[in-house]
Structure formats: C-alpha cells, structure tokens
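Long-time lurker, first post. I've been practising inverse folding by hand and with some scripts of my own, and I keep getting stuck on stretches where the structure tokens seem ambiguous. Below is the full token string for one chain I'm working on. Before anyone asks, I'm not after the true native sequence, just a reasonable design that respects the backbone. If someone could post their per-position residues I'd love to compare against what I wrote down in my notebook.
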C-alpha cells in the first residue's frame, strides 16, 4: 500500500483504508469459512472481504495508532477491523514497556467477547496472554480453561504456545488436561495442535501424556496431536492398541 503525501495516522483513516480494500466475493467466502450461519460458532459475524496480507499491511502502516483507538476498533462488528486491531495490539505489546504491556494485557482480557473467532485468538493469545505470564503461575489460564465461553477456553490453550517456544512444556500439558473432555470441536483442534507442538520440542513428553490419556481423548484432538507420527503409529493410536 503506497503511503500518501501528508498521511496522518488516525482511526478514521484506518477504517477508510480497510473499507477501500473490501471484496464482496471474498466476504461471501469468509461467511462460509468462518461458520457464521445460525447456530454455528461464528454466528452473526460480518466480513468486508480483505486478505490477511492486506490486513497486515494496514496494521504495519498504522502501528503508531493510540492504544485506546485500537481498542475502539476492536469493538467493531466487522471481522477485519478486529483482525487489524489485534495485529496492532500484538505489535504494541511487543514494542511496549512494562506499563504499556500491562495495560494491553488487561485490556485484552477485558475484551475477550470481541476476540470471538479462532483466527482472532490464534494470532494474539500466545503473545498478549502467554507472553505476559510466568510458566509457574497458571491460575489465569486455569480460570480461562474453565470458562463457559468457547473463545476464552481457546485462549487458555493457545496462550501456552508462548511457553512451548521457550521449551517450557508443563503449562500446555496442564491446560490440555483441563480441556481433555471439552465438548467443542474447536477446543479439540486447538489442544491437539498444541500437543503436536509439544511433540516437536520433546517427543517423549508428548508420548508420556498420550500414554495416560489417548484412549479418553476426543478423536479430533488425538488426530491433531499425532499428525507428525509415522502412519503405522497413528493407526495404532487410533485403534487403541499402543
């Protein structure tokens, strides 16, 4: 996106740039992809039709927008506005001093109702939630994992990706255990994904967890967790013969 002469960062300008790139055809596809129909997990969400690279380019251009304005953008009914808002919050958190990081972390937790689809959680929870916590103090993630809200439970497990990257694997195993019998497919997928990432760091740790729980895990969770295993081993896990 070319920078215009006399360009001034403002929330109004950001919104105009987002809307200028909207594509009705892409928006129609997004309505199906993000399951926005009656009774589906994304019910009622609205899309303008931007690609991820377009939204990332806009966020980069407006990275100096004030945090309060970004939080205002997060309240938007339009999905792409919320994507850009979260990209900006993650960037601001990573660049911020302790006080700013604390403010962003608290604001994020106060607005989980606006972080209401899997892509929004996945692009932000590891950085703004996991990145703010100590691996030995998991009370916040435990609380989120017990929430009645789907997206808070997904935040709880995806936030542990931060610890996995630091080779601290206990937080993921703890939250995975709490979510082992969750009823929602999107939690099964997220837990399985994080367990697979644990296995990339230490296969023995993953195998020990699976040995205790694989027979009781939802099939989707198990399939995601063992995705990188040899086919013969995957078949044995799924058959319950390990």
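-- Answer (accepted) --
I ran through it position by position. Result:
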């Amino acid at each position: 996106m070319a920078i215009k002469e006399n360009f001034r960062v403002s929330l109004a300008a950001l919104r105009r740039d987002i809307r200028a790139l909207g594509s009705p055809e892409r928006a129609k596809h997004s309505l199906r992809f993000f399951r926005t129909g009656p009774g589906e997990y994304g019910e009622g969400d609205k899309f303008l039709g931007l690609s991820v690279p377009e939204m990332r380019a806009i966020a980069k251009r407006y990275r100096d927008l004030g945090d309060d304005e970004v939080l205002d953008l997060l309240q938007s009914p339009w999905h792409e506005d919320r994507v850009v808002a979260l990209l900006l919050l993650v960037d601001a958190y990573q660049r911020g001093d302790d006080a700013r990081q604390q403010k962003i972390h608290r604001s994020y937790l106060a607005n989980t109702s606006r972080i209401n689809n899997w892509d929004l959680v996945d692009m932000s929870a590891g950085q703004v939630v996991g990145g703010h916590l100590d691996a030995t103090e998991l009370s916040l993630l435990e609380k989120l994992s017990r929430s009645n809200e789907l997206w808070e439970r997904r935040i709880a497990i995806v936030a542990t990706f931060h610890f996995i990257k630091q080779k601290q694997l206990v937080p993921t195993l703890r939250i995975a255990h709490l979510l082992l019998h969750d009823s929602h497919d999107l939690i099964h997928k997220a837990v399985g994904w994080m367990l697979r990432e644990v296995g990339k760091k230490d296969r023995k740790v993953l195998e020990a967890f699976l040995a205790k729980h694989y027979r009781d895990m939802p099939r989707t969770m198990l399939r995601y967790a063992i995705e990188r295993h040899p086919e013969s081993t995957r078949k044995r896990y799924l058959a319950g013969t390990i």
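A couple of notes from the structure itself: Residues 79-95 form the longest helix (17 residues). The two ends are 53 Å apart (CA to CA). Happy to go over any region you disagree with.
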